[in-house]
Amino acid sequence: MEEKYESFKQKILKLNELALRGEEGEAINARKAMVRLCSTLGVNLEDILNESEQKKEYVFNVGCDHLLKELFFMCSEKILGDGEIWYKEKNSHISLELTPSQYAELFTYFDFHKENFKKELKATRKRLLLAYLLKHNIYVGNDDGTDKELSSEERRNAWKTLQMVDGLENVSYLKSLEDK
């Protein structure tokens, strides 16, 4: 189930409403939260609230991995629309001309997806190695005769690994020796 997406600007506007209409402590905390959110991104709160259209160059540390770069461009297209994007690329950094609001939005959106993607990639790489070892019988039996009950998480991971085994190509070490 996909959650309804709430943009950075929508969050700031909600906090601003609370800061204006809230009771003493509520209003103070909402104001502090807005300032903290904006300062962590290096944007001016007034620029966000006043919808400043002044564009400036912002640098994103995307990473050297081509998959992360592709993820960045997909995120930027989702946030900015599918118009032309002018950018400069240098190693792991990409610069874009954006308004402060666009920058804050893209930065938070990409940062979330980048961290989540890296976590998923790490787990998938581990499952892929295990699936490869199982598919090609490259494992040492360590059966001590006792059966252990698997947790639901372990069962889910085992199922994902077995699905990967089915997706791997059928190649044989002996067959490749004969071909040479």
Short note summarizing the structure:
The protein is mostly helical and 180 residues long. The chain is built from 7 helices and 3 strands.
Can you offer a commentary on this structure?
The protein has a 3-stranded antiparallel beta sheet. It contains 7 helices and 3 strands, in the order H-H-H-E-H-E-E-H-H-H. The protein has a domain of 44 residues. A hairpin with a 2-residue loop joins strand 2 and strand 3. 62% of the residues lie in helices and 9% in strands. By secondary structure, the protein is mostly helical. The model has no long low-confidence stretch (mean pLDDT 84). The radius of gyration is 24 Å and the shape is elongated.
Set out the fold topology.
Blueprint: H1 8-21, H2 24-41, H3 45-49, E1 56-61, H4 66-80, E2 87-90, E3 93-98, H5 100-135, H6 152-167, H7 173-179
Antiparallel strand pairs: 1-3, 2-3
Helix pairs in contact: 1-2, 4-5, 5-6
